[in-house]
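thread: overnight batch results

M.L. [08:02]
morning all. the overnight job finished for the chain we discussed friday. pasting input first so we're all looking at the same thing
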Amino acid sequence: MAVKTSQWDPSEYLDSPKAIAAYLEAAFDDGDPALVAAALGDIARAIGMSQLANQAGVTREALYKALSPSGDPRLSTFMGVMKALGIKLKPRAA
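M.L. [08:03]
and the structure it wrote out:
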């Protein structure tokens, strides 16, 4: 008998600021920039790409490109997205 699977979409579970912050913190803890960008993409889909792009001061197309698997967001885009999400980065010693 074949195993039936379904695709899991994390954006369906990012329904509160606390969930978003925890998801992003886990991505940062991993340390992989591509994973952080992917997590931001999941968050953007959960919130609404157009709305987040507008709040971050970039076009929707630029945000899609920056947060795509092959994207490499500029620091200004990253900081704009973080500000739009209401999330502050706080450096701390490793």
